[in-house]
Write a structure and sequence with these properties.
Blueprint lengths: L2 H11 L1 H34 L2 H16 L5 H24 L7 E6 L6 H13 L3 E6 L7 H15 L4 E4 L16 E4 L23 H6 L8 E3 L6 H8 L8 E2 L12 H14 L7 E5 L18 H8 L3 E5 L20 E3 L8 H7 L2 E4 L4 H5 L6 E4 L3 H7 L6 H4 L4 E2 L2 H9 L1 H4 L2 H11 L7 H9 L10
Parallel strand pairs: 1-2, 1-3, 3-4, 4-5, 5-6, 7-8, 7-10, 8-9, 10-11, 11-12
Length: 466
Amino acid sequence: MSAKAVIKNVITKGPVKTWEIHQQRKQEKIRQAKLAEMKQQVIAGIIDGDYADVKDLFIEYLKLDRKGEISDKYYEKRLKSLFVKEIYPRVYELESKKPVENKAIFMERGGGLSQSVLYMRDYIKKNTDCEVIDHFLYVREVPNEVYFENGKKYIRDMGTARAVFISTANDLTSYFKLRPETKYIQLWHGCGIFKKVGLSAIDKKFGKSPASHKEYPLNTNYSYVTIASPEQSWIFEESMGIDKDSGIIVPTGVSRTDEFFDPEYVKGCYEKIHKIIPATKEKKIILYAPTFRGQVEKAVSPDKLDVEKFYNAFHEDYVLIFKHHGVALEVPEIPEKYKDSFAFDLTKGKGVTINDLMTVADILITDYSSVVFEYALFERPMAFFTYDLEDYIDERGLYYDFDEITPGPLCFTNEELIDYISEIDTKFDKQEVIDFKERFMSACDGHSTERIWALVEGEQPKGAEG
């Protein structure tokens, strides 16, 4: 406080009050200095060691900063800010000064490799001398302290990587820029998008708030986003906030679809399903693969498909296989009378992927799931069980007029589904599926992975859609 300010305070507030103000400001300077010191100790401790080593110090720092006790919600908010805004940029800056290593990193936010990255990963291992490294963050499977520590290891490895592959959006790289030598490629977890996501869903209760998107942008630093055809470029541009002329969104085709064109893979799928469900040697397969409902943290799978009615209509000619969305925490139980005799739930276990099941399915029933795009490659019948269409549109929003583009009927009741399948030979319009495939999957020809790797090599991929 300047002498002039002191004199003014003495005159207007009196000497006692002036002394109290002086002491308060002195204590605040001491507090701020202590906060700065503690913060640097926390950051250094995490960078050089583990968050667990400085957790108590960080909580003490938060209490001093807050001038009192803190809630769990406030702690989690500040924990994320600490790692994403402070730790990750510093860790990356340190590591990115080192030479690039011949390694390709695959990051999964969950605890296992998704179908979306497996083919790309296997291709690199078989056809290049590039080392392959997997990073699992175990989101929602471990405490957030562990999740962010796992993220730190990923960011550290990212600093010297030649290529980084992911298949879902994340905000871990929100506060730093990648070195130009690293190719950061978003493979995405589906071949197309019906339901609104990312920036397109800001006005939906399912989406993040504008403030959250601004503070923690989800899709940053991408070198490329690989998609199935030029048709949906505009959707990825809108939902990810990527400029149309940036060259980031490229219709190379989707890596995961390449195995559909491999005769040995197709043969293996039939052998696998015949072993698990011997009845499929004689009967056809109806595959029900719906998307989830609700928010990811509390996701459930729809329970409106009537197994008994399907049994009565189709048990002599078909088996019914359920493949619920992987994030669904609750899935409906198959009635015991029909379980593992007519109807089978292959959502988890058995080692059967959605790709495997699409390969062998004779008919697909889905709803708003992106599986329709991959399944169109087989040019087989599909139907859409959209009993909650209006509610779903209100909650999620769709990019297209659903009835206009779906290559099969919208069915609102079990009876409509059963009627369509019963007369599939006369009602199925194969050309409708072919037109859909050519519009939305035109770059998926069995060579997508080669074209994507060519991007890493710095080559112009041959045969990619323009």
